[in-house]
Amino acid sequence: MRNTSKTIASFAFKRGCLSVFILVLLSLFFPAQAQSGLPSPNPHSPLTDLSGTLSPEYLSAMSARLERYPFEVRALYLAKTQNLQLAFYAEKLFKAWKMPPKSMLMVVALDRRKIGLHLGSELRNELRQVPPSEMPMGLKKNEQSSASQPQTTASAEPSENEHLDRLPEVIEEISQSLQKQNKQAQQEPPQSAASRSENLLESNINESKPLKRQENFSPRQLLPVYIFLGILLFTGLFFLGFRLWQKRQAQEALIDKFSLEGQAAFNEIEMLYAKFDGLLPNFHKYQGDTREKLKLFLQEVSALQNQYDDIFDNYEEEVKALAHQQEQADAIDFFLSLEKGLEKGQKLFQQAQTILKNLTDLNRNNQNQLESLQTQKHKFSQELHELRKLHPQLKLTKLSPVFQRHHEQLQEYESLNSKDPMRVEKQIQEWLKELRKLEREIQSLPHLWLQFHQDLRQRIEGLKQRAAQKKLTPAQTRQLEEVQQLHKNILQAIENGDMERMNHLNESFTHRLQGLESEI
Question: Which of 138, 151, 439, 464 is the most buried (most CB within 10 A)?
């Protein structure tokens, strides 16, 4: 799959290089027409001369003639325009200069002897609606002058600045043409004005039909374009054929790759499946808490085995599907899933080995602790024997069942350790806690016996003497008898080693003794 990605990336790189090459050629054959920036208007005059070739007298006279119109008229003179579309440039400049809707902008190309014209929307509408009798004075005058010219003027050779002197005439012709559009019967314009305006004016007045780019190329100028288009067509056909050949080669390589790698992954999955079959019985022997902790892991292993079973059933069909274009995508996904399933199985198998090792170590640690507990049990038994010898009054008859119960628990832990080591580990900690508590209580028995046998007995005898001197109420007499009985029962519990009963009686004894001492 990585080889296929490299092939696609290589083809994309080649296609990108070809695109860059095409853009370079286009930039050579078709130079940019737009200027880097738009000029600014002349703030002191409606005329802006960027050529620098016009005399101040001409500019002053033309400015005075343009200012006679009842709407704003501006003109821009350009020295070199090449194939610049004057009408569109005038429209763009009209918006950039933010001229009012009732205004007109002319772009004069000195090198091509052409004029580009753009009218504001409000001016355009007004010119269409104004009748001929209400035309501006400047327009009527120009109309009469142009009509009085002889017919031979149109065919005469124009002077160098004739097209510049005729700017007001252009404005007049534009206003006349706009008015004539409202008439049903369109009249033919005078031949002289039409012939003069045809090669002089480029305008986008009629916005219903956008201007088309008019460029005249000679056959010699178009020859590089034809050569380039031929090269481009040949290059496209070559890359198309190369792409088809490359696609077929990639498909064959893809089939070989996934067939070989898929077979290798399939064989490893079979071996891994057999390893799981040999390893899982080691998990099935565990019970109780250990089994509960392993439940999620065993479910994951079972799901993986079911996935492997599906792979074994569908492998042959997916190998055949690699050769079919329609089923190839699903087959590739299947072989990619083989690698993912193999990686997942290997991780699970390593995890299973780690879990078994940890359980084995836990079993061994529990066994060592159980042996240590046996030693502590014997030590505890020896301490009880020494305590009876030093204090014969302590019979400790209640400790024998407790000792026997702890002994039986150790035997149960030893038999359960191989099946549920996690539970045994927790129970060993609880057993040690109980044993330490029992040791502390037994060590305190001699002190408790002396305290109740001497100190508390003397306090009870003192109460009896004060009671003999003072007449007690029946309730006080009953309380004194209960205190004596509790004292006797506590001494008996201490001698028998019944710490639970002693703690229960001691709380009631202390409370009643203190209350009786405060009353008597």
Answer: 138
